[in-house]
Amino acid sequence: MVDPSLSGSMAVGKDSPNNPSSSGQKSQKVPVHKMVRTDSQDPAGRLHAYLQINPSSQLQGSSCLTSVRRNPRETADLSSIQELVEDIDSNCHSGLLDLVGHCTYIGMADDVFALLQHKTHLYLANEVNLSKELMYQQVLRGFAHFNAIQLSDPAPLRELLILALKEEDLDPEANEHEGLKEKIAEMNTELLKQKTEMLEEYFGICIEPNGILLRIPVILDQYTPDMDRFPEFVLCLGNDIDWDDEKHCFQTIAAAIGNFYAMHPPLLPNPSGNGLQCYKRRVLSRSPRGGIFSETAENAKDDEYNHELLLEAENTWALREWSIQHILFPSMRLFLKPPTSMVTNGTFVQVASLEKLYKIFQRC
């Protein structure tokens, strides 16, 4: 976990014999073990400096969505929203605020954790937690002032809800609960149709009277959520919202939107490392005990990959990492107010300290 105090603010400057201090004495050089070699604006040292990624080609994958601007109305003067925003401000941790505001993104350590440098410390940061909290806060700050993402293929609520319910089912092939799923989908569809005016005016979610979802909000510019998680989001709107209490209603809707827009790992397995095995075609092989054939991917040759699916996975994962570096972290520096809970919940983990490493090397 991260040091709650995050103390040890250091002044870094260039010392020169021609630049004396006001007292006439030569300025003190920064000790080697406290020297900061990168800053949040300097890309030197980032892993992306050694990779060739064409973000414009990756962004073509979002061509099914188009942005729609709307004229902002008067600021929603609702005490419940003001209280939720004040809760964010009052619960902000000053040390973490300095960390996210002045960190340098290095690269992804795995599917969830990113490597960050802050001054002389190296951290692992859970980008799913960070993006979820950022999106939640942005929903509350942008309340009633959202531009919209127009869906090129309007989505029927009922079909999305049934799809989400099937994904939640432990045995999606079983038909014994089909009637119950249909009933839940119908009830949630009718519920959301009753809330269309509020959802569009306050959150930019446009649903037609016939239950067709047309638009979703823009939370961060140049970013669209993973639409594979769209059915889950619609089900969450139907099941998990407290529609009776205004403040809790807005809070739970903002949380549902934040979870949908968070930068979760894609549903397709990561083609790097062991995940590549998932993209080998299923082939028939003879059983060692007889003439029975069975399906296996282990004996597949290199040219027996599902190249179309593999390319889709590579583009999806590359786009996510590009979005983390170029959208999430710049937005995080500007807007995120990290809650105190992130000090102890594993969102930030300090993995190295230059001062401690310097002491170790001195003993060698």
Per-chain topology:
Blueprint: H1 55-59, E1 65-68, H2 79-90, H3 94-101, E2 104-108, E3 113-118, E4 121-126, H4 127-141, E5 148-156, H5 157-168, H6 178-194, H7 196-203, E6 206-207, E7 212-217, H8 230-239, H9 246-261, E8 283-286, E9 293-296, H10 307-335, E10 348-353, H11 354-363
Antiparallel strand pairs: 1-5, 2-3, 3-4, 4-10, 5-7, 6-7, 8-9
Helix pairs in contact: 2-9, 4-9, 4-10, 5-6, 5-8, 6-8, 8-9
Descriptive account of the structure:
With 364 residues, the chain is of the alpha+beta class. It is built from eleven helices and ten strands. It has helices at residues 55-59, 79-90, 94-101, 127-141, 157-168, 178-194, 196-203, 230-239, 246-261, 307-335, 354-363; strands spanning 65-68, 104-108, 113-118, 121-126, 148-156, 206-207, 212-217, 283-286, 293-296, 348-353. The strands form three sheets. A four-stranded antiparallel β-sheet has the order 1-5-7-6. A hairpin with a 4-residue loop joins strand 6 (206-207) and strand 7. Helix 4 (127-141) crosses helix 10, helix 5 crosses helix 6 (178-194) and helix 5 (157-168) crosses helix 8 (230-239). The two termini are 28 Å apart.
